Structure formats: structure tokens, C-alpha cells
Amino acid sequence: MANWTDIPSQRGRTAVVTGTGGLGYEDALALARAGATVILAGRSRAKGLAAVQRIRQDVAGADLRFEEVDLASLASVEAFGTRLRESRDSLDLLINNAGVMTPPNRQTTSDGFELQLGTNHLGHFALTAHLLPLLRNGSTPRVVTVSSIAARNGAIHFDDLQSERGYNAMAAYSQSKLACLMFALELQRRADAGGWGIQSIAAHPGISRTDLLPNGAGAWSAAGMARRFLWFLFQPVAQGALPTLFAATSPSARGGAYYGPDRLGESRGHPAQARIPHQALDRDAAARLWSESERLTGVSFSPAAEQTRR
Predict the structure, then answer these.
(1) What is the pLDDT of residues 286-303, one digit of tens each?
(2) How far apart, in Å, do the first and last CA atoms of the chain sit?
(3) 173 is an active site residue
(4) What is the pLDDT of residues 176-218, one digit of tens each?
(5) Residue 266: which residues within 8 A CB-CB, separation 6 or more?
(6) Given 25, 167, 173, 259, which residue is catalytic?
(7) Model confidence, pTM
(8) Which of 169, 237, 257, 278 could, after both became Cys, cross-link 102 (CB 3.0–4.6 A)?
């Protein structure tokens, strides 16, 4: 996989990618170039339509469209899932990418969850459940969930998942991204046990030149200014998207694996097997997180992998 950039043809495959800027945009662009039908999903219609227009200018005949979904709203996620299930019979690829990073003050989703956990993990958990019936009908279907090197320092605080007792922006972000990684690994275990026929794979982009930091922490925060003035420390966003694209398209990518950049402590480079932090390998904690996520979101992956509202 050294210096991997060769995305195989994706003609005949349909992908949903969450997040209309940064990594999500690069994922959608690369998949469109490879011939996939791409549904680019995000909360801002204006940004989403602009992203679609840019991709179409770059890729003649690109087959893609924008669909509105707010991952910080379970009602929006459910509505999106319902629209897709009513309009199509199958889905081949879901990239759970969109995210929120380190807002300085604690914020909540429309359902009352801490914003980072609610958006990064719980929103994608619910989205995957709603789309699982379509994925099960797909051709060699994959679910790729984007984590972060911040997951290394994460911990799942089951006694205070929503950071209500005390809010630390980076700790909450690290928890959310550890949850993403644990979800990806647990989804593969449950898919294997249930015979769902899908691959669940995790990836992270290293340290990439996206707008995630300034959008979350603020343009004039220390992190935002580092992103602006020390841009050379961040690899180009197209490079950061490669581990996700490897996980999404390479015949060599394995279900239950984790991919990231191969150099400088996984901060930059080309796709390679990433180190899974020890806390993400705790199967009891992963099962508990899964059960708690089902309870909080009101979705279920069973029986028969059919989602229901409770």
C-alpha cells in the first residue's frame, strides 16, 4: 500500500458521504472521478450545492447530488434515511465523515446531547442504522467511519457522557472520536455475527489542512491561528483524505481495520495500517457504548438489522 493513490473504478457503485467541505469534499470529488454515484450530505444547502457545482466543473458528467441532513438532529437523520429508503433499493458505501471539533463552550444538539459526541458519534450511529437495510442490499458494501489521532487520548466517560459535570473541549472531542473508532470496530463484530454482509472500516486523516479547527474552536483561538499561520505543519486536505478513500475503495482494505497516514506518528503521509489505541479494543466497553448509543438515539440495528424508532 506504499504511496497508494490509485482509486479503482467505482462505476456502478453508489456512495453517501457526510460533510460538504474539507475531507468530505475531497472524498466526494475522488469518488466522482472514479465513476461512482455520489450523494453528498450536509446541513448547509448553500454549501452543499456549491460543492456539487465545483465537483461538476472538475469532473465532466459527474453523477452526484446534494442531500440535506443535520447530524446534530436525530429527526433530520431519520428523515434523510427515510428519503433514501423510499427512493432506492441499495447502497454500496457510506462514509461517516462530518464532524465538529472543540467548540470553546459546551453546546448541545437539538436532542440535548453534547455537540461533539452528538454529531461525530451519535448522529453517525443513527445514520448507519437507518441506512443499514440499503447497505445490506449493496454490492460488497462498506461503512467507513472517520476517527482521529485524538482518539489516542480519549476515554469514554460513561458516568458523564454529555460532559455535563465539566466541559473540556479537547477531552470531549477525543471522547467522540474514540467513540467513532469503537463503533466501527463493534459494527464489524456485529456484522460478522449477524451475517449482515458488510465491511466496517475506520480511518483517520492525520493532521490535515481543513477548516475543522477554526470552525470549531474559532478563527482567533490558539488552534485556529495555528491552522491559519502555521499552515505548513498541516498536510494538504486531499492527502488527508487518502486513508478514508483507501478504506472505502481498495480491495486490500479489511473489515475491522483502521487506516491512517504512514509518517511522523501518523500525522501525514500515505495510507497504512494505523495503531488502534488500547482503550478502543475493550470489547465490554464497546458493547456498553453500543447499547447506550441505541438508547440515546432510539434506533436499533436488530432484529434483522431493521431500524425502528422507539
Answers:
(1) 999 999 999 999 999 975
(2) 44
(3) yes
(4) 999 999 999 999 999 999 999 999 999 999 997 655 555 544 4
(5) 149, 204, 206, 260, 272, 274, 275
(6) 173
(7) 0.91
(8) 169
